[in-house]
Amino acid sequence: MKFNLRQLGYFVAAAEHGSALRAAEAVHVSQPSISTAIRDLEQALGQPLFHRRYAKGMSLTPFGQRKLGEARQLMSEAQAFEANSEDDATPTGTVAFGYFTSLGPAHVPALLRHLGHELPDLNVDLSECDLEEINERLRDGRMEVALSYDVGLTAPVTKEVLAEFEPYAVLAEDHPLARHDSVSLHDLAKERFILVDLPVSREFLLAPFWQNGLEPEIVHEVGSVEMVRGMVANGLGVSLLTTRPTHNVAHDGRTLACRPIREMVAPQKLIAAYPSAHPPTRAVAAFLDCLRMYFAHNAANLQTSGERKTSNKF
Question: Which of 10, 44, 117, 155 has CB atoms 3.0–4.6 Å from 138's, for a disulfide?
Answer without folding.
Answer: 155
